[in-house]
Design a protein that fits this description.
Blueprint lengths: L1 E13 L6 E13 L3 E5 L6 H9 L6 E6 L2 E2 L7 E4 L11 H11 L4 H14 L15 H14 L4 E5 L7 H18 L3 E4 L3 H7 L2 E5 L4 E8 L8 H4 L3 H27 L1
Parallel strand pairs: 2-10, 3-8, 3-9, 6-7, 7-8
Antiparallel strand pairs: 1-2, 1-4, 4-5, 9-10
Helix pairs in contact: 2-3, 2-4, 3-4, 4-5, 6-8
Bound molecules: adenosine-5'-triphosphate and magnesium ion.
Length: about 260
């Protein structure tokens, strides 16, 4: 079943200063099946965050359709859970309080939501930290808390915009392994934005490569790597390098195209 379907998405922003229209997204279509991990990759400023924000319901599209779980998107909703790049946690709530917030809003009884909250804290390796506060956690732990909070709500689609970008390389690898383990165990539907090619290959089932702005889909690349995945084993597979090279070529080819346009102008 299709969890997320994007058809002929178009987005033009109106510059608040000059009043000029800037086309961020020209024509983007792809879908994410239920239980599939799909990454979107593309040059800086090509509109990745814009696509994610439109799916989240934070930004209005100017054309095309976005359907989540059979329903057209019209504003934010609990069927889409967003893990932000910065943690966006509630500093005045405990770790457990952050995880169960959405369940509380939905009226899940206390005992049940706390049990579910603890289960998800365990899943991200934060068992025993439920009574701490976010500021008492490291950046990597806060990011795992962000993941647990979204997972606990069991959204139809989990939206992640470069969630590990501000984290040191070693911790990032651990978080990627943690996310791939969670994916293996729970099979959430994930729409993941990144500009890190290796990260996209390591985590994904498919990678949507976007062109420069105004963006179009250059190619959708299948990742044929076995699961479960660990960095040590996966990075050594020839298929890992082959896929990463292919994505890198697609991105580099785009730069050549842009250069050619400039040269002929
Ligand atoms: N609110 C806005 N008003 C006007 N233009 C905007 C707005 N938000 C984004 N844009 C423009 O739309 C384009 C796409 O931006 P977006 O943030 O989606 O790119 P991105 O691919 O996520 O970039 P990055 O890789 O740097 O995160 C950019 O040219 C940006 O300047
Ligand atoms: Mg972005």
């Amino acid at each position: 079943m299709t969890a997320l379907r994007i058809d002929n998405l178009h987005k033009a922003y109106t510059d608040s200063y000059s009043g000029e229209e800037v086309t961020a997204i020209d024509d983007v279509s792809f879908e994410v099946e239920q239980g599939e991990f799909v990454s979107v990759l593309g040059p800086s400023g090509c509109g990745k965050t814009t696509v994610l924000n439109i799916v989240a319901g934070f930004v209005r599209k100017t054309g095309g359709t976005v359907v989540v779980d059979g329903r057209p998107v019209d504003g934010p909703g609990p069927d889409r859970g967003v893990v932000f790049q910065s943690h966006a946690l509630f500093p005045w709530k405990t770790v457990l309080g952050n995880v169960v917030f959405g369940l509380r809003m939905r009226g899940v009884p206390r005992a049940e939501r706390n049990a579910r909250g603890k289960e998800f804290l365990e899943l991200v390796g934060l068992d025993g930290f439920g009574h701490r506060y976010p500021h008492e956690l490291s950046g990597g732990m806060q990011q795992r808390l962000g993941v647990a909070r979204v997972l606990a709500n069991e959204p139809a689609v989990m939206l992640m915009d470069e969630p590990f970008a501000s984290i040191d390389a070693q911790t990032r690898r651990k978080l990627q392994e943690n996310l791939t383990e969670i994916f293996q165990e729970r099979r959430p539907t994930v729409f993941f934005v990144t500009h890190d090619v290796d990260e996209a290959v390591f985590l994904s089932d498919r990678i949507v490569v976007l062109s420069r702005r105004p963006s179009r889909v250059r190619e959708i690349v299948d990742v044929r790597l076995p699961r479960p995945r660990t960095w040590q084993e996966t990075a050594e597979l020839p298929e890992f390098r082959r896929t990463a090279n292919k994505v890198n070529e697609l991105l580099a080819g785009d730069e050549d195209d842009a250069g050619a346009v400039v040269a002929s102008a």
